[in-house]
């Protein structure tokens, strides 16, 4: 199986449900264009996405409306699954710091710190993606996840014998360490 892992910013992956800034609207348009391009160029057989299940994601809507329809799978780890894996509290209390972006603007952005429990989530993502792809006989699979997880997920998929590429093109600045 082959996986194309695209780094996303969770701030612009969801379908608008309130008024948005021009910057967010532009990021969403770029994101949609990339998904459309990848679906055509790579003949994507499935989309797996780390996504808030309370809202419709842009990729989810794209997959549903595509002709023919592209299977879509949410690979987020639920609160119950995090609890059962013993990582709920660690993820809830993740260390982070803030940076002013851009400097002098008065706008701050959180920078999350990687913790060992991220490895457990990425293993979960890998398992969910491969099981879903096998169930749908899908190849290649487009995987959308936060930038922090892309390279670790690629390594896990490759270690399982799959082809995997990582794409960070949509993320101009890393907000994790």
Number of separate structural domains: 1
The total count of helices amounts to 6
Average pLDDT number: 96
Query: How much helix, percentage-wise, in residues?
Result: 40-55%
Radius of gyration: 16 Å
Shape: globular
By secondary-structure content and strand pairing, the structural class works out as: alpha/beta
Instruction: Give a short account of the largest sheet.
Output: 5 strands, parallel
Please provide the count of β strands. 7
The percentage of residues in β strands lies in: 15-25%
Q: For the terminal residues, how far apart are their CA atoms?
A: 30 Å
Query: Spans with pLDDT under 50 lasting ≥5 residues?
Result: none
Element-level helix/strand string:
EHEHEHHEEHEHE
Strand order of the largest sheet: 3-2-6-1-7
């Amino acid at each position: 199986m082959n996986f194309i892992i695209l780094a996303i910013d969770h701030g612009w992956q969801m379908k608008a449900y309130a008024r948005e800034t021009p910057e967010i609207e532009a990021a969403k348009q770029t994101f949609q264009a990339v998904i459309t391009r990848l679906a055509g160029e790579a003949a994507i057989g499935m989309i797996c996405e780390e996504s808030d299940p309370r809202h419709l994601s842009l990729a989810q809507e794209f997959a549903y409306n595509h002709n023919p329809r592209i299977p879509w799978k949410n690979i987020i780890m639920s609160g119950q699954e995090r609890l059962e894996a013993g990582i709920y509290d660690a993820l809830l209390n993740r260390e982070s710091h803030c940076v002013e972006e851009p400097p002098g603007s008065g706008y701050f952005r959180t920078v999350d710190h990687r913790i060992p429990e991220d490895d457990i989530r990425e293993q979960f993502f890998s398992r969910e993606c491969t099981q879903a792809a096998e169930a749908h006989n899908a190849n290649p699979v487009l995987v959308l996840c936060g930038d922090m997880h892309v390279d670790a997920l690629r390594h896990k998929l490759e270690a399982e014998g799959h082809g995997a590429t990582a794409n960070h093109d949509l993320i101009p600045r890393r907000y994790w360490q």
